[in-house]
Every structure is written in structure tokens, then in C-alpha cells.
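Thread: quick sanity check before group meeting

JM: Hey all, I'm pulling together slides for Thursday and realized we never actually wrote out the predicted structure for the chain we discussed last week. Dropping the sequence here so it's in one place. If anyone has concerns about the input, flag it before I start.
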Amino acid sequence: MDKEQFDELIKSTKKLNLLYVEDDKKARESTLNFLETFFLKIDTAVDGEQAFAKTELKEYDLIITDINMPKLNGIELIRKIRVVDTYIPILILSAHDDKDYFVQSIKYGVDGYILKPVELEQFYTIISKVVKKIMLEKSLAEYKNNLEQKVEEKTLELRRMCYQEYYTELPNAQKLQIDMHEGDYDYLLLLDMSNFSTINKEYGKVFSNQVLSKTARILEHHIHKRAKLYKVESDRFVILLRETSLEELHEYCKQIVAFFDNKNVKIDEVELHITFNIGISTVQENVADTLINSEYALDTSKDLGSRHYEIFDENNSSFKDEKEAIKYLKITRELILQDMIEPYFQPIVDIKTKKIKKYEVLARGVLEDSIILPFHFIKPAEKLGLMTSITKVMINKSFDFFRDKEYEFSINITERDLLDGYLCKFLKEKLEFYKIDAKRIIFEIKESITLAKDYAKITKEIDALREMGFKIAIDDFGVNDSNFSKLMGMNFDFIKVDGVFIKELKLDKKSKNILKAIVNFAKTLDIKIIAEFVEDEETYQIIKECEVDFAQGYFIAKPEPTLDRITHKQ
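JM (edit): ok, ran it. Output follows.
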């Protein structure tokens, strides 16, 4: 092995993003020490399922994977990756030299097969070939990008020469940004034409462009003398205002709305009533901040219906919440990608015996020294389409945790989990792998599930879970406008009374009467009742008096990452 060639190889590999997949912790740590000689940027995955999730969220230059792993083995992982990416180099690193593995790996276009324990000479030979392939692909991609960039620059240059949208003859988005940099403006008004998509569908694109052109002429003709009008994307216009007070701004927005209330746009023989929503921001030094803030304001305006305007205010709680939600989209991706969602366990006590009978498994994000509650990452996960990933993580980690313990435990599942059709097969594999009895596991489902469009499919899936031995609990019972007849048609074992009622028991006699009614209803159906959010002794005594079966809440114990940290009141 030539030292100069070896050093050159190291220079190349240090630039690459590697995903290394290995389920055995000892083998993973040992091989990582070796790989760190070659690679600076290494992500790890402990099984094929986690590895595939990471490839969906991040681009890698190279994947090195073991074969025999739980959940999704190396060959299945490669097969799934090849469906979406036929070019990424993949190496198998395994102690097995079985002929079938070789045949399957060739079938899926594996770039190399390395036997454990890793020998430097063998690894050097294989990785040298792979790196040459990667560098060639990168060179071609760079050449293509440079070519595309030059074309884009020329196109942009041509657009900037005229600064105009071709059918409105107004300055465009590029000109807007230049003017915001160079001008001295106070406010930006983002005008969004209401129901424009309906006009487009009903009359066609040519007619719609005529509507935009005619609207542009009207706005331009009546524009404020200290204002400048722009046509930006789709059905939107922008107005920049200078030397304008807040009072004048409100008056100007009202005038725009009132004017179009009394002025129809006529194209040929068709008269259209045009309305706008307007999002307003003060012009910031950073152009992007101004545009983003106007978008936030526009969204709020739309929530109020057509013909409304809204001014962005950094101190407004709704805007703060929206910005916070955007921030947590990024954090949620990171939590899932880096496998930083962990189970916490909260005990559920049998009120008659005062003994812990079961635990609810609760998801927590663990980011450095911070614990992130589900309130912050569940909705972002739903938006990102990653909710089932969280469910799978919680199933795997809770099954692993409880397999050598005697307790029952409950896991929350969602409407999405029940509709995606993966649960029964996935759970069958997990039961076999972790050697755990399905009768010890309760799946908690929100009462609002009865309002789902695909209720019949959901019911079928719930029945299939019960046939496998799992128990079902209806969560947040009593707070939703559920379809009671549909709820009665479901087979379930527990009712978890929503915390809204439990928290009010000490102060509100009505809540206590509701709880008694729920208990009586459950007893006729031989269904056990769990009261959540039991926060103090007085509440505990009331639910005991109402003959509730189980209690859960901070009075019993807080959720903890291990059972030895839990102390509950006897």
C-alpha cells in the first residue's frame, strides 16, 4: 500500500458523508474507531428501519451496513434504498460469507462486500474504487450545476433588464427586492386575491391572466401618491408605502377593501367581484424578514375570511406561536433523524390495592440537556408525515424495556397508524423478536377517532389488534363531539377520562356527576375506568368515591425515564 496514495484517499474520504448501520453495540463502537481514520462525518443507525428513515431526511455519499439486524435487515434496507436511489454506493460489512447474501447483494447493486473483522488492506482496496466512483459523480454533478447556474444567471439578468411581469407590465419580485434595499419605505402590503384558483379553474389561464392584468391597471390607476405597486408570484401584488403613519396605513387598507367592494372587474361580458386579503409588515433592513413577516400577517388575515387585513406584530401571541411552530418543525426532524425520542414511563395505580398495575409510555424528545414535551413535536411530526416513525420508535423501545418485566404498559397510536396498514405485521414481528405477550400491551386511541372519514377501516384494524391479543383504551373520553353509536360499535377494554373533568372535580359538581355517569356506563359494559391528571389527594379521594378503577397523574408519580426513579404514594 503506497503511503502517498493512502494519504490522497484519506483526503477524499474526509469530505464524504457516511451512514454506518450496525445493531451490535460492541461491533459498532469497534468499527467506528476504524472508520474514523477515513471519515469525519459519520452518522450511525442501530437497525435498517432507522437507517432508511435517515436516508429519507438526509443525503449521504456512502452507506456501509451490516446484514443480520432486527426490524429491517441489511438486504431489505438495500432493496428499499434502491427503489428511491439507484446510484448511491453501498458496502456490506458482515461476518457472514453466505452465498445467498452474495447473490442478493449483487442483485441490488451493492458496490462491495467486506468481511469482519475489517482488514485495512481489504478495506483500502474496496473503498478506493468506491471513492473514485463518488468523485466522478460529484464532478459530473458540479459541471451540470455550474451549467444550470450560468443559464439561471443569464435568465435572471434578462428579467432584471425589464423588471416587468409580461402580462401586467408592473415591476416584478426582483425589482421589489432591489427597491427595498435602495429605497426608504415604511410598510410593505402583500395583497392576495381571494378565490383566484376558482377563477382559474372555471375560466382558464388566459382569462385569469386578463383578470390579473385588469386588476393591475385598476390598482395602478388609484395607487397612493407615496406608494409603488409590484406584481409578484401567482395572484399576488405588493405595495410599498413611504412617509406613512400607522393611522394613514389603516385608512389606506380600508380604502382598498372598500374600493373593490364597489368596483367589479369586467372581462368581455363577464363581471367579477374581486376581493383581497392583505398582510402588512414594516420594512426591515433584512428583506427576507419583511417578506416572511408579511406572509405571517397574510395567513392571519385569511383566517378571518376575505376582505381583511392584518399588520404583523412581533409581540402578538399568535405570531409568536406561529414562529415557534416553524422552529419546532426543524427540531422535530432532528429528533427523529438522530433517534432522540425516548420513552418515559408514568405509573397507573389500581385504586383498590394501591399497587402499580401498568405504565403509560410517553414520548419525550431529548435534545442535549433539554427534555422536549410531545406538545412541541407531535403536530410538526404530523405535518412532516413522520408520525408513524415516532410510533414505531415508541413500540420498539417500550417492547425492549418491558420484555423482562411483569407490568402491563400502554402506547399511544394515531389515526394515521391505523390507516397506513402497517401495524399488525409490524407488531407481529416485534412480539416475536422481543418475546413479549400481546396481552400485556394496551393501545390508547383518541375518542375523536369516531369522527374519522375512514371509520370502517379503523374499526377493522382495531378488531385485528384485539384478535392478536392487544387491549384497547379510548383516551380523552368525554371531551370530544364523538359519534357515540360508533364508539359503542368499537371493542375496547379501558376508558381514560379526559383531564378536563378530573381537574375540575374539586370545584365543579357537574364534573363529578359526569364522572359518575361515565363510571356507570362503563360498568354496564364491563369496561375499566382510568382517571388521568390526578394531581392531589383530594382529587384522588373523589375518584375513589366515584368507583374509578385506576388513577394516573402527578399525585401518583411523574413520568420518568427509568422505573427506579419512580416513587408513588401508597
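AS: nice. The CA atoms of residues 104 and 504 lie 62 Å apart. The radius of gyration is 31 Å.
JM: adding both to the slides.
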